[in-house]
Amino acid sequence: MGLDRRAFLGLVAGGAVGTMFTPIPWKLLDDASIWTQNWSWIPRVPKGQIDYVATTSKLCPAGEGLKIMRVAGNPVSAAGNPDHPLSRGGVSALARSEVYMLYSPARVKSPMKKSGKGFTPITWEQALIEMTDKLGAAKGAVACVSGDGTGTVNELLSAFVGKLGSAGYFMMPSEATTAAKGMALMGGKGQAGYDFENAQTVLVLGADVFETWGTSTRNRKAFAATRPVGEKPKSDYIYVGPTRNNTAAVCDQWIPASATDLGVVALGIAWHLLAAGATSNAPGFDTFKAVVNGGFSPADVKRATGIAPETLAGVAKALASSKAPLVVTGSPCGQGLGAAPFIAGMALNILLGRINKPGGVYALPELATVVPGAMTREAMLAGDLPAFLKGVADGKTPAPKALLVYDANPAYGLPETATMAKALDKIPYKVSFSSFLDETATMCDLVLPNSLTLERYDDLATPYGSGFCVYSLTVPYQKPVHDTRTTGDVILTLARKMSVELKFDNFLQVLKEKVATLAKASGGFVAKDVMPWQVAAGKPAPALAGGDLWKALSAGYAWTMVGQVAQTNLGFAPEALAKAVKAAKAPEKGAVLVPYAQLRTGTPTTGIPCQDLTMVPDTELLKETTLVRCNSATAKALGVKKGATVTLRAGDASCEAKVHIFESVMTGVVSAPLGFGHTAFDIFSKGKGANYLSLMAVVEEPGTGLSTWTAADVKIA
Fold first, then answer.
1. pLDDT at 24
2. Residue 159: inside a domain, yes or no?
3. Backbone phi, then psi, for 588, in 5-degree steps?
4. N or C: fewer beta carbons within 10 Å in the chain?
């Protein structure tokens, strides 16, 4: 069988995840970057002295540290920083794009004002004058949507909106928003953090931990460290989910299960642990035990999921006999998971005694806020954006008078995209602080471009999934390529014009005070010779060296702390769990659509990075059409053949696709790639394939009230 260059690059960059743990793919990516130098809008590599500087990726959700190669002071390429605990030398396909995206043709080059169906360039002063007037008139009904889950800029935005009269502050839905809801329902405090480095047996329920879930680059490094080539593995990984994705491909065992059945599987494993004598003093244990014994016996679980009793009994035995078991729950596509599956997975960790233990789940404390009036991260994550926008679209929730959108693209990156766009249309005044002309930006009245990572000061604090508190900086190593500004500075300037007191004169001052508070934190240290997972395992934490912490962070090092929040009230939340899990069931008609995401196709806020498009295989995107995956049994039942063009329908929405026969998808499931179907950005993103999120219906989870969407009943013809 032939393999063209594009398919080959796709294979080495992401299709075969086992190769991610060797340096081979990154040499091939170097070759790919050389091939892309022919694009006319990329500046020629200058001649001069070569040096390396360090920063942090803000384009990639994994938050890895980067080493930037410069020639004559100009950034030319990005690689992983071996001194950063979230990268350890590794790098994702998206993080490698930090330099190239500086010159993306999709970048917004200056402030723009809506004019008819297009935009007219305006000055920053004109934009600020207009916003002062419009936001002043909208006082009492100003909302904000942020897609940056780790930045201190959220403190400025939430304080600013709050003092104008907030109509709601919302984070784009993610694994972090689901976990925050689950922890709150369980009576827990802090952010769930997963110690992969010290875990011995890891059960992964749904989460694509080596691709798009949490600190994926760090997760891959932790996996590789316990499974050196040619030696006996020191860890075991079991994956439960609807497809043999990039995580399942390298695990020791794949157990096919619907995305809607992850909670059922977890409670089925709990049944075996309870039968073997597992117990707990955590609140709600007796009721939890009654719920499990009353509806999640081996026969019950087999009837609901098709999984044989001996399979889950084997998983339970492996976890119970392990010195350091760990259970991780997440969505197969990185969003839309209900709180109940998260609670069910956490219940297993409680039964196994793995809370705040090495190799288990740490409850990580939130870093202190420094902006007066700012919301805590916990409060920010409590908002349910899909429910809010759906209410606005249906007329059940009053539309805010003004909306600020920061590093987010809700018109593209949410389920029921037509409904979400309808809601955005109802908001009279909208401002996007986007670096790129994305789908949401095209709907806004003003677009005020944020400078990119290498052009601005910014920060990253403890991304979801990290097993330890971590904080690192981005440093401007290049003057802005275009007429862009740091959004934090724009908000502070606007606040002064509107007489809103936010304490600081510029965003750099905010970050310096943030770092000053870290220097006083007990137990914190700079990760250099000692890493946080080593401290978690018992190695003494080094003292925070005297001197300037800011200097160490500016040099690319990370502040870290192995902290934990005592969980005196963390319980099983059995009532909410019982209602949600028992109500969850797979669609009965048509096929079950389960989306999957990959970093090589970017994020809703980046589009598809141009050089990463060369790594997309023809089994995922063929010319301008995306391919959906199903196994041969499913294809036969649906009456479709390999390569056939089909239409997927759910409600009033439809998407076209071609069929790719792929046996690593469970029967009855159709797996569809996300990251395609853009109607904005540039020629590398626009018009390529379909956005399958449009087929996903938002459903309120019984017992928790959280909006969910991980699978959809679709008709295929």
1. 36
2. no
3. -100, -15
4. N
CATH code, 317: 3.40.228.10
91 contacts 79 by C-beta, under 8 angstroms: yes
Q: Is 577 left (phi over 0), alpha (psi -120 to 50) or beta?
A: alpha
CA 575 to CA 566: how far, in whole Å?
23
Tell me how far the alpha carbon of residue 684 is from its chain's centroid: 22
Q: Quick check: is 419 in a domain? A: no
* Percentage of the chain exceeding pLDDT 90: 86
Tell me if 182 is assigned to some domain.
yes
Domain boundary among 576, 601, 620: 576
pLDDT tens for 119-128 read 999 999 999 9
Instruction: Decide if pLDDT at 325 tops 70.
Output: yes
What is the sign, positive or negative, of the torsion defined by CA atoms of 340, 344, 349, 351?
positive
Q: Dihedral sign, CA of 347, 348, 350, 356?
A: negative
Going from the C-alpha of 514 to that of each of 371, 549, 559, the distances in angstroms are 9, 11, 12
Separation CA 76–CA 24 (nearest Å): 21
Q: Dihedral (C-alpha) 543, 547, 549, 552: value to the nearest 10 degrees?
A: -100
Give the C-alpha separation, 186 to 207, whole Å.
Answer: 20
Between the alpha carbon of residue 717 and those of residues 269, 648, 649, 670, 671, the distances in Å are 38, 7, 8, 13, 16
pLDDT, tens only, 250-266: 999 999 999 999 999 99
User: Domain total for the chain?
Assistant: 2
Whether residue 148 is contained in a domain is answered as no
The string of DSSP letters for 70-85 reads EETTEEEEEEE-TTST
Spatial distance between the Cα atoms of 632 and 655, rounded to a whole number of angstroms = 21
Sign of CA dihedral 73, 453, 515, 64: negative
pLDDT band at 611 (very low <50, low <70, confident <90, very high): confident
The answer to whether 606 touches 452, Cβ cutoff 8 Å, is: no
In this structure, what token pair is assigned to residue 147?
């897609």
- What is the rounded CA–CA span in Å between residue 380 and residue 631? 41
Boundary (domain end) residue, out of 526, 547, 576 = 576
For residue 641, the domain's CATH number is: 2.40.40.20
Whether the CA torsion 502, 506, 508, 512 is positive or negative: it is negative
The pTM of the full predicted model, rounded to 2 decimals, is 0.92
